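User: Can you recover a sequence for this backbone? Please restate the input before giving your answer.

Assistant: Of course. Working from this structure:
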């Protein structure tokens, strides 16, 4: 008893199996989390070091280069990029694809631990972190209250922030803006000179006096009591009355004699504002494996509780941005596409199969496969994200493939007069081999993706395995549930012309019959006019290649995805103050908020950038505005976000001259780089900056280039202090003393804390604001010389002058570098990069300047390369699978001819839909390799069966093409119709799935039209050659057999 006969006679086994899969699938669905994208790791480690008060050149020499040297010996390093800014160093270590990022982080940490003692004493301990898409904030909040600013800040920091950090999955919450309480000791430089003491003496006196010491215990025979020296300040007067110095013949000099002590606020370093209202901004980041939707829900619950408990203080949290909103919209959009695809495929089935009964037999494979896929996803640890749901949507048409082929063949045997039982057995037996081949070639194309080590492979792995598993379940359905149902309920439908629906079906059948007759006649002509048909195909290929050469199809890594949000960055002159920056930013906000299409604006004035490669340090002259727009249909001319952003930026540049505006769309995935990123490396910074300026000027004039800027720019104002080391040594001073005092004077010293109750507040000691506003005052900073035994001015042993220098210094792989970055507008990044390369060919770089690409160019090269290798590997796997199935090396080659003709339709579809060649378009090409061969397999397999029954190969291939035309039309149209909702989708996340669906639709369509002629023609040629060659070979063998040994 064979397998199919067992299923028909003893269906309980298969019913139990699918009951388990169905129940497990429904249970798993409830446990699956929602995410926008699959979690994937980027093999990059960042090392951030804060060096307060240091200029970029100092940061580079004292911190960045030392860290570079330490980590350069790590294994599997791809690139090391260093950025030295004022007061901060950022070293980015990129590892080769496939590197275990956790191990790499541990090894990097060990290297840093071994060298941290070589860093300056004032430099903070380096902070290491992995770069991950989860480093992007998933929520932005603004907290407001009627409480005094400093009181509310303390409450947020000490009470509300810890409550939110306790939410499972929250990795980090950064506060921006607000007023922090601080004890200010503002020292008057004139009074220091009058009393003959230095700022360093004041600082040391305060820090050394504000201490507590556990000094032991007082013990007796009956008890012991802890002895503690209480030296902490208990009031402002304690600080004011503290003795700093006592002259030999004078009164003690107290802090109040040289300084003003106030209970005040720290200098404002950043400001947060939402829709014009100031407050405390909070950026919430999640852990790499956490669920953003669940975190958002729990955070909102905590916020509601906090607001309720603090209603008397009018505490309120405004959610300025919540990534879960777009995530759920994307999931809902894909789910809608999936449901629509199921409905459309069901209509196609009803049209071809003539009855609801037969349509149900086929369509049962869809829920059986989809629900089982949920169980698979749960076991694999996947989530309901854009990729897995896209996989389930695209696979709808594929799921009915096997069942269509099986049912159609069973129907053909029913038409021969057989009963249900026999028709089912014979039909499945006849078509079973082809059905297995159909499924295997679809599944094996995804195997290489699961084995490739690259970022893009991590992103696509969940998509690939979900499609593969669902397809395998559909094969199981076609060999179990489909035969079982056909053996019980299948029947031939007799159409009644008086029934309107039946009349329509009869008209449709007549059309199919006419098409079949036309196809049979045309196929005979093609086989008889092989050269003419080959010429037609070559002409089609040439025409397609010519159209592609026109540059109609652009290139890009991935589509950004339109969330209706963009980031507008404004930079004032480098000398601008925070107050000036804030006033300008507010003016721009007020202007933008008058536009009805602008819904919200979150302002981050002088705060740290929210980007993945941020150093965590803000810039006084820089502001980020996160702008959310109304839906596209409510915008002028229904502009997409990117075009609206560019128009707005140009409008602001004209209205607010002197401000540098840059902008970028907030997409679904941030790879950490810009669409255009050119890294120029060399040994001479001046030459690099000159060359970069020239390249940037030409790039700004290139169509499609936008927001072009150079990373390293001169002109950052700075007071340059050049020490005469000999004079300094004669005065008994050293660099550490001089640098420490200058830092104390202008940045402040906050080593000491003032305790009130259970709270600690900084005591900041620095020069009075009046003494810090004039660069000339730097010359008059006094130091106490132990050799001269008197105060000395800085000007006595140093040259102090006002100059300028770069605000950022860069290095790439331990060489000085300058980076040119830019965004794109209206063209794919790959297309623009090709244009730039053409320009560089005409205008070559100097011999000692080298160019390397980062950003999208690097990602695109690696991603396209990985998928290219995967496609070659998939082609080989498919061929080997068919060799095993056919026991032939020749017929699989015939089947492979269906792939080139699919590329024609795929490229035309991309051009007509104005889509770019991206990673997802290439994924569509990879899927096509498996999908388009099914038509060829159906024809070749049936032709082989007919030849085995004694039919001549020419008659066999013509008859096979005619008989398999109907299932080919059914399966192809089902897949194309099932993918149309995805191709035409315009909802959240549609930019990614559109190009993938169009590639599949175009490729399947052209393959269906051309394969049914090309494959039979190649099959005929192969058999004709084999016939002639085989007869000669047979004669030779017979001759050899007659030769005596």
């Amino acid at each position: 008893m064979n397998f199919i006969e067992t299923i028909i006679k003893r269906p309980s086994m298969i019913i139990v199996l699918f009951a388990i899969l169905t129940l497990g699938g429904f249970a798993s669905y409830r446990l699956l989390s929602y995410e926008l994208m699959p979690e994937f790791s980027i093999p990059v480690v960042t090392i951030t070091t804060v060096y307060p008060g240091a200029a970029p050149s100092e940061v580079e020499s004292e911190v960045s280069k030392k860290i570079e040297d330490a980590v350069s010996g790590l294994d599997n390093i791809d690139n090391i990029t260093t950025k030295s800014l004022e007061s901060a160093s950022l070293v980015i270590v990129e590892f080769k694809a496939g590197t275990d990022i956790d191990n790499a982080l541990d090894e990097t940490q060990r290297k840093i631990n071994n060298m941290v003692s070589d860093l300056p004493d004032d430099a903070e301990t380096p902070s290491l972190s992995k770069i991950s898409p989860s480093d992007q904030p998933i929520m932005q909040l603004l907290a407001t209250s009627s409480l005094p600013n400093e009181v509310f800040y303390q409450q947020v920091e000490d009470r509300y922030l810890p409550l939110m950090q306790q939410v499972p999955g929250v990795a980090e919450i950064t506060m921006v803006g607000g007023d922090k309480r601080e004890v200010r000791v503002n020292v008057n430089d004139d009074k220091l000179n009058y009393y003959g003491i230095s700022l360093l003496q004041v600082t040391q006196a305060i820090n050394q006096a504000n201490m507590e010491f556990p000094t032991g215990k007082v013990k007796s025979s009956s008890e012991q009591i802890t002895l503690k020296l209480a030296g902490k300040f208990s009031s402002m007067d304690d600080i004011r009355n503290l003795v700093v110095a006592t002259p030999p013949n004078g009164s003690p000099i107290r802090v109040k004699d040289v300084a003003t002590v106030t209970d005040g606020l720290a200098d404002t370093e950043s400001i947060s504002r939402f829709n014009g209202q100031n407050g405390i901004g909070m950026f919430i980041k999640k852990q790499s494996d956490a669920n953003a939707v669940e975190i958002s829900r729990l955070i909102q619950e905590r916020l509601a509780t906090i607001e309720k408990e603090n209603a008397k203080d009018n505490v309120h949290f405004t959610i300025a941005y919540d990534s879960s909103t777009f995530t759920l919209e994307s999931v809902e959009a894909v789910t809608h596409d999936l449901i629509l695809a199921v409905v459309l495929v069901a209509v196609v089935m009803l049209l071809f199969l003539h009855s609801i009964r037969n349509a149900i037999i086929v369509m049962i494979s869809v829920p059986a496969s989809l629900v089982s896929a949920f169980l698979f996803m749960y076991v694999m640890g996947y989530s309901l994200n854009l990729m897995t749901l896209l996989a389930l949507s695209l696979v709808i048409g594929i799921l009915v493939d096997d069942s269509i082929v099986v049912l159609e063949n069973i129907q053909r045997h029913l038409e021969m007069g057989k009963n249900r039982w026999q028709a089912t057995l014979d039909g499945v037996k006849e078509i079973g081999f082809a059905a297995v081949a159909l499924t295997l070639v679809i599944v094996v194309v995804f195997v290489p993706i699961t084995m490739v080590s690259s970022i893009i492979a991590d992103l696509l792995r969940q998509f690939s395995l979900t499609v593969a598993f669902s397809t395998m379940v559909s094969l199981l359905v076609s060999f179990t549930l489909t035969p079982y149902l056909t053996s019980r309920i299948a029947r031939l439908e007799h159409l009644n012309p008086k029934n309107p629906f039946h009349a329509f079906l009869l008209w449709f059948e007549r059309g199919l019959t006419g098409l079949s007759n036309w196809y049979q006649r045309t196929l005979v002509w093609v086989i008889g006019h092989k050269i003419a048909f080959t010429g037609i195909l070559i002409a089609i290929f040439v025409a397609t290649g010519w159209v592609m050469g026109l540059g109609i199809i652009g290139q890009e890594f991935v589509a950004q995805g339109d969330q209706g949000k963009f980031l507008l960055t404004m930079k004032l002159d480098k000398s601008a103050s925070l107050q000036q920056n804030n006033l300008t930013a507010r003016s721009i906000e007020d202007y933008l908020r008058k536009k009805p299409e602008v819904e919200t604006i979150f302002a981050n004035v002088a705060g740290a950038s929210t980007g993945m490669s941020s150093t965590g340090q803000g810039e006084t002259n820089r502001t980020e505005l996160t702008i959310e727009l109304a839906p596209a249909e409510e915008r002028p001319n229904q502009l997409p976000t990117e075009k609206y952003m560019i128009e707005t930026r140009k409008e602001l540049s004209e209205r607010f001259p002197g401000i540098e505006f840059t902008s970028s769309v907030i997409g679904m995935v941030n790879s950490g780089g810009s669409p255009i990123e050119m890294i120029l490396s060399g040994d001479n910074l001046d030459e690099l900056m000159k060359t970069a300026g020239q390249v940037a000027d030409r790039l700004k004039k290139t169509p499609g280039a936008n927001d072009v800027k150079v990373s390293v720019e001169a002109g950052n104002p700075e007071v340059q202090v050049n020490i005469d080391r000999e004079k300094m040594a004669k005065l008994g001073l050293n660099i550490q003393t001089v640098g420490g005092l200058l830092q104390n004077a202008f940045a402040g010293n906050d080593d000491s804390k003032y305790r009130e109750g259970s709270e600690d507040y900084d005591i900041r000691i620095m020069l009075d604001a009046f003494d810090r506003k004039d660069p000339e005052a730097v010359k008059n900073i006094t130091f106490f010389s132990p050799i001269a035994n008197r105060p000395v001015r800085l000007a006595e042993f140093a040259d102090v002058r006002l100059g300028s220098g770069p605000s950022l210094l860069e290095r790439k792989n331990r060489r000085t570098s300058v980076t040119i970055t830019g965004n794109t507008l209206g063209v794919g990044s790959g297309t623009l990069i090709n244009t730039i390369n053409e320009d560089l060919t005409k205008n070559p770089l100097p011999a000692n300047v080298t160019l390397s690409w980062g950003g999208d160019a690097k990602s695109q090269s690696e991603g396209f390369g990985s998928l290219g290798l995967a496609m070659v590997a998939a082609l080989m796997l498919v061929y080997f699978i068919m060799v095993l199935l056919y026991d032939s090396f020749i017929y699989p080659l015939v089947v492979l001819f269906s792939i080139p003709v699919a590329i024609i339709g795929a490229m035309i579809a991309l051009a007509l839909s104005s889509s770019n060649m991206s990673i997802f378009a290439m994924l569509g090409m990879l899927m096509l390799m498996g999908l388009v061969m099914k038509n060829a397999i159906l024809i070749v397999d049936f032709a082989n069966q007919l030849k085995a029954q004694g039919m001549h190969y020419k008659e066999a291939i013509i008859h096979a093409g005619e008989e398999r035309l109907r299932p080919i039309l059914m399966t192809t149209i089902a897949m194309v119709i099932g993918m149309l909702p995805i191709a035409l989708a315009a909802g959240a996340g549609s930019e990614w799935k559109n190009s993938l669906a169009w590639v599949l639709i175009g490729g399947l369509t052209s393959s269906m039209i051309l394969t049914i002629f090309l494959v039979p023609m190649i099959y005929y040629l192969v058999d004709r050659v084999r016939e002639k060659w085989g007869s000669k070979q047979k004669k030779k063998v017979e001759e050899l057999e007659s030769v005596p040994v």
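That completes the design. The first helix runs from residue 3 to 9.
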